[in-house]
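Worked example 3 (structure in, sequence out).
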């Protein structure tokens, strides 16, 4: 009998347990900086590599709702689940990405005072909004053209 391969429907937020602090090598501050760099580069890379990505807390039901809504439209979004311990680092990385987009962007349609909330949906590498924004644009019929423009839908 063959052994089943486990399937993960999400991108793990951290690559493993944190290394123990070694005396004389920066203590806890050094390991926190290394963890921040590792987790931050993972979420930033995931946002830029995927046409649509849903970022939320591990086990969040609203993240599941956003994913199911997008799946119903024919989009297969990546899901990045954040552990409670890594939440601060991920939020800081996402906010820095949003600020960089606001400075470089066209400036007309992005909300500068938009608050980052989980689940956060990124479309085409830019923050689209939370579940409320996704549902609002879906009901108004504006979501499908946005997803087509981002390359998430081909029909």
């Amino acid at each position: 009998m063959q052994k089943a391969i486990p399937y993960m429907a999400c991108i793990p937020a951290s690559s493993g347990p944190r290394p123990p602090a070694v005396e004389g090598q920066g203590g806890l501050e050094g390991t926190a900086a290394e963890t921040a760099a590792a987790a931050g580069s993972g979420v930033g890379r995931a946002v830029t590599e995927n046409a649509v990505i849903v970022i939320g807390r591990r086990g969040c039901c609203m993240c599941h709702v956003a994913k199911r809504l997008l799946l119903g439209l024919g989009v297969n979004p990546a899901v990045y689940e954040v552990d409670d311990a890594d939440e601060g680092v991920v939020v800081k990385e996402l906010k820095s990405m949003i600020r960089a987009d606001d400075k470089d962007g066209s400036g007309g349609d992005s909300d500068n005072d938009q608050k980052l909330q989980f689940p956060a949906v990124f479309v085409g590498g830019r923050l689209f909004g939370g579940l409320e924004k996704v549902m609002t644009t879906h009901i108004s019929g504006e979501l499908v053209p946005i997803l087509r423009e981002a390359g998430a839908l081909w029909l």
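Notes: The mean pLDDT is 75. The helical segments are 27-49, 61-72, 87-104, 131-140, 143-150.
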